[in-house]
Amino acid sequence: GSGSADLRDARVESIKNSKLQLYVDFAGRVKSQARGKQIGFDYTADPDIGVSLKDRLQFVVEPSAKGFQLRVVPKKLNMHLDIVVRVPMIGKDVNSSRDVEIDSTAIIKPIDLPTVLSPNVTFGKNRKLVLKNFYYRAESDRMQFAADLNFEQKE
């Protein structure tokens, strides 16, 4: 099947102890397909599923192979589903609405944080600024990016 999603709201509520607390309001639609044969009858179903989620999530800032990333803290989320299945054989739609519990890590993959600066910046003809040991820090309601700075002679 296929689907689309709309992130209606995402707000950082707090930043502390290397964690970001976010409020998210998310809605989308998924169109799926099912085909098969049961008790000698061929069947086709094309469920149209509306999904919505309003919850708070925590992310941790951590090193990754590409630099740093935000990784969601595992949490059980309550996702609301509105399901409509068209049943051509009876000429009606079958509707269902329910809340399901899902794991946050199943739907939210780690987010790579951008590298803000190049590690080497040249000044004039014979000096360069070298940035090493990049890191992000999430504390006191702010996100900080830092690195060790060294001035070196250009080779």
Features:
75% strand, three-stranded antiparallel β-sheet
| SSE topology string | EEEEEEEEHEEEE
Largest sheet: 7 strands, antiparallel
Using only C-alpha atoms, the radius of gyration works out to 24 Å
Q: Helical element count?
A: 1
Distance between the termini: 57 Å
Instruction: Please state the structural category.
Output: mainly beta
Instruction: Compute the average pLDDT.
Output: 84
Contiguous runs where pLDDT drops below 50 for at least 5 residues: none
Strand content: over 45%
Backbone shape: elongated
Helix content: under 10%
Count of distinct strands: 12
Q: What do these coordinates show?
A:
3% of the residues lie in helices and 75% in strands. It contains one helix and twelve strands. The longest helix has 4 residues, at 104-107. The chain is elongated and about 80 Å long.
Write the layout of secondary structure elements.
Elements: E1 2-16, E2 19-31, E3 34-38, E4 41-45, E5 48-64, E6 67-72, E7 76-87, E8 92-103, H1 104-107, E9 111-112, E10 120-123, E11 127-139, E12 142-153
Antiparallel strand pairs: 1-2, 2-5, 3-4, 5-6, 5-7, 6-9, 7-8, 10-11, 11-12
Q: What is the structure about, briefly put?
A:
With about 160 residues, this protein is mainly beta. It is built from one helix and twelve strands, in the order ββββββββαββββ. A hairpin with a 2-residue loop joins strand 5 (about 50-65) and strand 6.
